[in-house]
Amino acid sequence: MTSFDFVWNKQGSVNGKVLARKRKKPAESNEGGSKKLENILQKNKVHEKPNVDKFKKDVALPNPPISKKKVPFKNTRKLVNLEQNTPPENPLENDSKRLVKRKKKKDKLAAAELLRLGQKPTPVPNQDRIQHSLFSEKHRTKNISNISGASVVEQVFSSDRTFSYLDIHKYIVSNLEKNNFTTLTNVQEKAIPVILKGGNVLIRSQTGSGKTLAYTVPIVDALQSITPRLERNQGVQALIIVPTRELALQTHEIISKICTFQWVVIGHLCGGENRNTEKSRLRKGVHILVATPGRLLDHILHTSSFKVNNVRCLVLDEADRLLDMGFKKDIIKIVQELDQSKKNCEYDPLALLRGETPKEKSEEVDCDDLYCLRNPKSPKRQVVLLSATLTKGIAELAEFTMKEHTYIDALDESSNINPDHMVIPKTVRQEYMITFVKHRLFTLASVLVAKSKENCKILVFMATSQMVDYHYQLFSNYLAKMPINRGKVKSGDVLLLDEGGESDDEEEIVMDAQFFKLHGSMEQSKRKEEFSGFRKAKRGILLCTDVAARGIDVPQADYVIQYTGPQTDEDYLHRVGRTGRVDRTGTALIFLTHDEQEYVTHLQKHKVFLKERNSSEFSNHLCDLMEEVEEEKAASALQRRFEEAVSKDKELYKLACFAHSSWSRFYNSYPAKLRNIFNFQMVNLGHYVTSFAIKDTPSHVAKVVRGQVANVEPKRLNRKLAIHEDDQPRRPKQAPKRKINSISLRTSEYSSGLDFKKKKKKN
Ligand SMILES: Nc1ncnc2c1ncn2[C@@H]1O[C@H](COP(=O)(O)OP(=O)(O)OP(=O)(O)O)[C@@H](O)[C@H]1O
């Protein structure tokens, strides 16, 4: 008699003990059970099909906990012919057993060898054991409706007019042509003639439309035309204020390209640079000065040789940013200082004795027909404000800095722009991707891998400096490099490919793109090095904060990722605007969670329409990377790699904790306008901890950040305590409680780099 008995593993685990139960004879037929048996037999390719009808009579099928999921053969049930005590022939099973045997033999030999060398053998990890909980969250729905519409379109070039059409020096035209600037962009065509006439202007045009040349060309042309030629001791004639150091250097570079007149001197001042070098540069004399507000004000107030009484052109580039970053006070103070120094200079006691008032004197030298910048004696000061976004703040600034002005908009007069509408270059393809929180990290990694294979130059915007530091470290060390054996040990103990002979520690470089980082807390020299490295690189990935969102021009950047949502709509526009510059094509992708999907609808109100991108589109790259066939396994393997790295590497663990903590502070500080979309109350901090590859609970992470965990040193360790009081029980210092608002989080990005000295209180 051939009868089969059913034996299954209760936990569905290969490692667990096999529970054998002999079933009683069936009381009634068990049709469903027989079908299942047939299926199992077929699945497992048992060559000799047993007599199922007979079996039905003989054996009652149990109701084992059959999972609806597809699970590998060895995890479900095993058929054993108890009577003959020989398993049914299964080639797969035989193969795997053979491989296990071979692997065990190899391990034994290796262990013996290690023992001989006096080392401890390390256990081989059982990969199958770890079924990551990454995919437990499967019930979220997307509800984004009507995501197409007509966005506001601005033309970059509207005619064939060239720079030679303008009334400027022929050398400037030839310098421009040498740099491939021949045709005037729309904004240049509208703005340059007005600025050349000396008018105050407020300019709005979309990102990457050439606003920088719109004001630098007239300035250079005016200063080179002054006769007799400008002397260095005549001081600053044109002052250009920009919000970030990178933008200051970039603007300086552009002016140097078009201004080859030896007698016109260009300089820059920005936080983080050597103050004494700047001082001596100012003492020698500079005519066109590009500066960030903090450092500029510091020199105005403390460098006696720095004179600003001759400034006849003031440019505020990215004017709205200069206001909303807490620079408002600095800008107001700078403008007041310019006015004051002019007045001081005009103070002439002899003229007063003669009965002349300063006003009359001003009128005497004023010549309306001459551009004030061409006339060193002109009492007028021209003001130029520029931005891609107009905010209420700009209107205030315009009112404060100039009496009257011309408004120049690069959009056609016919297109009625509503102040709520955002104008984004039509060459930028805007996309969003909705991911589960736990999937964010490996999804970002898979997008980066996929895009770097396509030779893209990528910018990834993150919320905080700590996030940038952490992801930079993680990706450079654990994504760009992978263990050679990563895809070889699979399915439990079964070694599928074991001929390579490589050690488990050996790594190979799997990404062809280098990682760079940029944020406001970096040292200036490092900041310069990283940014210029990224600009020069043929392909690369720049992880950055919003410090790179304004004005930065990397023409080849063709992919922008917003890993964390922007805090304002203007930030969205400027981040996206780092790609698709001057009619080049580019793509901007924003990562959103299910709770944040409303942001897509929010953008529609501003006439911005995004297309959906599915994360599974990048999964084949993830599978390739991890040498896995299934997407989930590849994702789990990568997440596991990150988590293991974070838990083993103390420095990385600390970075991860600080990154998570800074992220949660950032997320908690969204302005009221967006707080219903990026809602901290809705956040599952535990899931976000996974998205930082941390295996601990959020409360433990918070303790690490506060320095309350014994074996993890706080990041900013007090060196004095560490050196002198090592033997005493050290009480970790708690950071003072601070009111957090979005400005305080972001202003550090734009600080002048100078230490703020507290005034001593008088007793
Ligand atoms: N007339 C032109 N022809 C071709 N390219 C140009 C021209 N003018 C400027 N460019 C190029 O266009 C790019 C963008 O210029 P620019 O940085 O001035 O833009 P922007 O409007 O100031 O952008 P943002 O608002 O982002 O600061 C630069 O790479 C610049 O070299």
- Rg, nearest Å: 34 Å
Count, helices: 27
Unreliable spans are 1-33, 45-50, 54-88, 124-131, 360-369, 490-501, 714-733, 743-756
CATH class of the largest domain: Alpha Beta
CATH superfamily of the largest domain: P-loop containing nucleotide triphosphate hydrolases
Average predicted confidence as pLDDT: 78
Q: Give the biggest sheet.
A: 7 strands, parallel
Structural class: alpha/beta
- First-to-last CA distance: 106 Å
CATH architecture of the largest domain: 3-Layer(aba) Sandwich
Strand content: 5-15%
Helix fraction?
Answer: 25-40%
Bound molecules: adenosine-5'-triphosphate
The third-level CATH topology of the largest domain is Rossmann fold
Strand order of the largest sheet: 6-7-5-8-9-4-10
Shape: elongated
Region (Disordered): 17-70
Pfam family, one: Helicase_C
Function: RNA helicase.
InterPro entries: DEAD/DEAH_box_helicase_dom (IPR011545), Helicase_ATP-bd (IPR014001), Helicase_C-like (IPR001650), P-loop_NTPase (IPR027417), RNA-helicase_DEAD-box_CS (IPR000629), RNA_helicase_DEAD_Q_motif (IPR014014), SPB4-like_CTE (IPR025313)
Topology overview:
Layout lengths: L4 E4 L10 E2 L10 H13 L8 H7 L14 H4 E4 L10 H26 L53 H9 L7 H11 L4 E4 L6 H15 L12 E4 L3 H14 L7 E4 L5 H10 L3 E4 L1 H10 L10 E4 L2 H28 L2 H5 L4 H8 L16 E6 L4 H10 L4 E4 L18 E7 L5 H14 L3 E5 L3 H14 L2 E3 L23 E3 L4 E5 L5 H13 L3 E5 L14 E4 L6 H8 L9 E7 L5 H7 L6 E2 L6 H8 L4 H18 L1 H18 L4 H4 L9 H7 L6 H9 L12 H6 L17 H6 L16
Parallel strand pairs: 4-9, 4-10, 5-7, 5-8, 6-7, 8-9, 11-18, 11-19, 12-16, 12-17, 15-16, 17-18
Antiparallel strand pairs: 1-2, 1-3, 13-14
Helix pairs in contact: 1-2, 6-7, 7-8, 10-11, 11-14, 15-20, 16-22, 20-21, 21-22, 22-25
The protein binds adenosine-5'-triphosphate (ATP).
Adenosine-5'-triphosphate (ATP) binds next to helix 7.
Family: Belongs to the DEAD box helicase family.
Catalytic activity: ATP + H2O = ADP + phosphate + H(+)
GO molecular function, one term: RNA binding
